[in-house]
Amino acid sequence: MSSKNNLLVNLENAGVYKSPKWLIRGVSLEVRRGQIVTLIGPNGSGKTTTAKMVLSILEPDEGSMKRYTDKIAYVPQKINIDWTMPLRVVDFMRLTNNLNDNEVSESLNQTGVEKLFKEQIHGLSGGEFQRVLLARAIAKKPELLVLDEPVQGVDFNGEIDLYNIIKNISANLNCGILLVSHDLHFVMSATDHVVCLNGHICCSGKPSTVIKDKAYIELFGEHRSKTLTYYQHDHDHTHNSDGSVSS
Amino acid sequence: MFDDFFTRALVTGIGIAIITGPLGCLVIWRRLSYFGDTLAHSALLGVTLAYAFSLNIAFSVFIISAVIALLLLNLQKRTRLAGDSLLGLLAHSTLAIGLVLMGFLSSIRFDIMGLLFGDILSVTVEDIALVWIGGSVILGILYFIWKSLFSATVNFDLASAEGMQPNIYNMIFTLLLAGVIALSIKMIGTLLITGLLIIPAAASRNITNNPKQMVFVAILIGILSVTIGLFTSLELNTSSGPSIIVIALILFIISLIPLELRGKLQK
Question: Are A193 and A178 contacting, i.e. CB atoms less than 8 angstroms apart?
Fold first, then answer.
């Protein structure tokens, strides 16, 4: 019974058709509270489309999507804010959420960018912007968090840093996370369930099962998939946003 | 001190500037300048129909603008032509239909110049009431839906995912825009109303750094344009509508100066 209560979203045999083809078909997956589910797959394999079905930005043309929460936060893959719109980080943080200054600072602090509070969005670097996007999502205290390539444009140290933050979110907020990622290292070391897409589900399951799956090895190449098996490790230290090791 | 008609014009103009400030900001944020223009062009058809069936002009213009907005949405689903092509199609065909219909109504004398450029000096007390009451309703609705509308303006997907229902609010916004055009068509005219929407908002963007500030400064610049424009037109005996827009342009040019200076200081 309790496991049923923890269910946040459930896709069943869902697909999206955009003339003249199916963007994705036959996807079944579920995200539960406290769980990190990742979608991996090549470009155009339907990862973002699947995420958008979960967020009800897109309606499935077949199959079904059932969601059991309205407390949702989203970090989209691409977001362009035109110069015509004057927008400070603090305004952006309040976009869909009523937050006071303290709450804004606190969330920015969690992703290491509290000093950007009053900066214009247009002046941020790619990495800084990703941190602000993540801070905005955390501030919503969501039950379901959907992250579409959340570390793009972030340097290597920053990536490890952000992935640690993401791991902490799922523990601290006890929320479910649906993550779209290219980073197989993180996917294999820190997520609970992997769904490998290529227009349909190639394989899915626990990371340790998926990396042995033929479909997975075929999709990502034998070399890459093998090196990853050595990579499962824990980080024994953390980094500040400037890359230095924090004590 | 002033002739009575002048005070009426001033009060009406300021009322319109207060509504066009926030809506103008949304129009330029959403890159809808040409959409506003299309609605304004179609207003001529609205005015013609109002004469033909003796309807209230503002009401008839509002209905036609709303129909045009719905038509646009429908066309976008049926063809893959770019948005600006569809807008051009709608703008000029409704303008043409309006003019053709006008030909059939030969018994009524149309003041074409008045329709194109407005006649703010001929506003009546009822017009003032219409602008201020209608304007309050529009601003009230806008205030109420601001958060949803604004988040949908920043990013549609984000707003949609986080439950802000952008589709509904985009539709309401379109109706509000049609409402503003309907209210101000008699005073500013079909050709100039987009100018009053866009120029104060654009000038405001140059000197502000957050959305709320931009909205308030846009209102201020609009009020300044109307006030200075009307006094100028009285002084120099120029047409009032165009004078207002020329003043708005001058304010826009002034708003560029601090930017230039800032650029030089940074170097």
Answer: no
